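Hydroxylamine oxidase, pasting as requested.
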Amino acid sequence: MLKKIILALTCITAMAFADGVGNVNLTKVIKVDRNLSPLAKKCIECHAEKTPGIVADWKSSRHAHASVSCMDCHAVPADSPMAIQKEHPKDSGNHVSILVSPKTCSKCHAKEVEEFQQSGHARGGVQMFAKKGMLELMYHYEGRDHPDLKDSPAATGCVQCHGLEIKLDKAGYPIPGKGWPNYGIGNAYPDGSVGSCKSCHSSHTFDIVEARKPSACASCHLGPDHPNIEIFNNSMHGKIFNTEGNKWKWDSAPDTWDVPDFRAPTCATCHMSGVNDLNTTHNVSVRLKWNLWAPHSKQRTGGFETAAFDYAKDGKLTAGNVLAGNPAGPEAARAEMKQVCKSCHSTKSTDSFFISGDMHVELYNNYHSEAKAMLDDLKAKGLLKADEWSDEFQRIYYHLWHHEGRRMRMGALMGGPDYAHWHGVFEVQQDIRKLKDIYDARIKSGKIE
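Structure tokens follow.
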């Protein structure tokens, strides 16, 4: 009997302790007494009660260790284009913005923000709203030009990954229903800056470990048109990561994260990390030789991306520099990527891999040239419908380059055989046959079926 009483008391005590541990990060009472301003302390103490999840994220972050507070990121001058009009806290004389733009992050992370703005990621939002075809797709074809509902396809879909030009209402809050809040990589802010650090380092932890894992990229780089996470999982790199990635060291300092911290690369390793002789970069385009997303793949000879700088200069939305890459040219980009491979692969092995990958890209271009020639001929002869989405030829052409063709090219250069072949070239060659049949019928009859 005595043993049962002791056991019962032990269980009750353990359960009470467990309850306390489980809530420790969401405590609604927090007392801050260190190198912070009185207003910064007040923000933390008040929001620990109002929004405890945000404060819990912040207190586990490097920012908290370095005494970077809410005020450092959210406080703005009263006349800032980002400012909420009402003082916050009330009668404090202080103004805040609900938005934190790259310009704010650049106060401490100037190099990272500049590199980001030189990358293709920076044009993600502005280019979408600079293209007539994308606007028609989002608002006319998908949104049906509905007076109240036409924004929903962009707001719930495209903008969530690409970003948008954020407009504020008279009170200083983002206009609802347009796509905010989002984690879009290329948001354009009222202060003229472009980007979104929190796309990869979710707020308010801004964790380097999170950004180094494939899941940081997977929320946008997936699906039929750019299945990068699926291709990664199909590759040997993905197989090794999925087997043992939970045991790797993810929190090494920038420029030091290299083998043996990991045994296979992730997205961040190849495109951003300071491996071997490389420095860490936030320009994800600088190690890319080819433009693999375009209808026809060209080598990246355009230097740095320009969209963010154009927007900062005069607020202009542009399609950006579609051939942005390494300013020293595509071979320099490839040489940098090979530096990543060098940690685990011989030079012959790496060279042979890229020879095969480049051949597959050029084979895709061969298919696309044939498809484009048929498209141009039909257009010249008036044998295409004005509505491309009701025209079978144009629908197949779109899927050839935007879906199957991207899978073929990305699968080849990411080591994903199923996407290089079955989801790629096999379907591309099927598309070409369908296009030829439609083309021949229209040329012969002089009519659209």
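Note for the archive: The two ends are 89 Å apart (CA to CA).
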